[in-house]
């Protein structure tokens, strides 16, 4: 029986260390560089290792997991658009709410949480869930921009470059891991050691950089919008997760771990990459930064609670 306290502590400690180093003067540039190192270097290693070692039977969960991520993004986008109608008619504020709510931190905090709660099997399912995160994230985001602006004010070539740059490392490492698994190829011991060493860095560094990203200055007048976004992601999200599981189960067989991962991913806080769209549509950047910080901070309390609920249901 996994000790929930031990698991939560293992998540909180690296995040707390990141917060501490932020107060010690870790700069935004250093945080960005470290995050890029994790995404572009260590993540491909852990993706490759986990898919190389994955039980071949678990590979049947790739298609339902990807389908679940796409459906969940559509549902969050639709409900965020609907909920934004209850906000003051200030365009930048509403846009900040929508683009802070439609996508969660599935492939960053989500990976760390799934690894801690469900081990390698959970992490592998989380990788399946986020295999096409960047294409879905970008296409859904620009679709929202089109709906809100009624025009396309972005470069298709630029979109393709962003897709390739950010999707290639995890997709290529996933493909390599799957092929090596299918053909029972095992890397030489020296290379295998290198892979494991870089893979072992990933989850602690993910959680550490989340701590580095915290911002604690909030405007009182923005609190209703910030809290509504947090409630949407951290509480309403579970209902969206249940609906997603129910719909996907009509067409695919979901194993118990995949169901749990989908439900837990549905209550992840706002994605750290959400500010990307501020370059393409006018929105209140300070409100969005506050949503990211506050939703992540609250999630450290709500994630363990949803874990208990999920374990009771499944």
Characterise this structure:
Helix 1 packs across helix 8 (189-212) and helix 3 (62-83) packs across helix 5. The mean pLDDT is 86. This protein is 75% helix and 0% strand. It has helices at 4-23, 28-53, 62-83, 91-101, 109-129, 133-149, 156-182, 189-212, 223-249, 256-265, 285-313. With 314 residues, the protein is an all-alpha fold. It is globular, with a radius of gyration of 19 Å. The protein has one domain (4-313): Na+/H+ antiporter like fold, CATH 1.20.1530.
Concise summary:
This protein is mainly alpha-helical and 314 residues long. It is built from eleven helices and no strands.
> What CATH architecture label applies?
Up-down Bundle
Q: Report the CATH C-level class.
A: Mainly Alpha
What is the averaged pLDDT score? Answer: 86
Would you count the extended β strands for me?
Answer: 0
Structural class: mainly alpha
First-residue to last-residue Cα separation? 15 Å
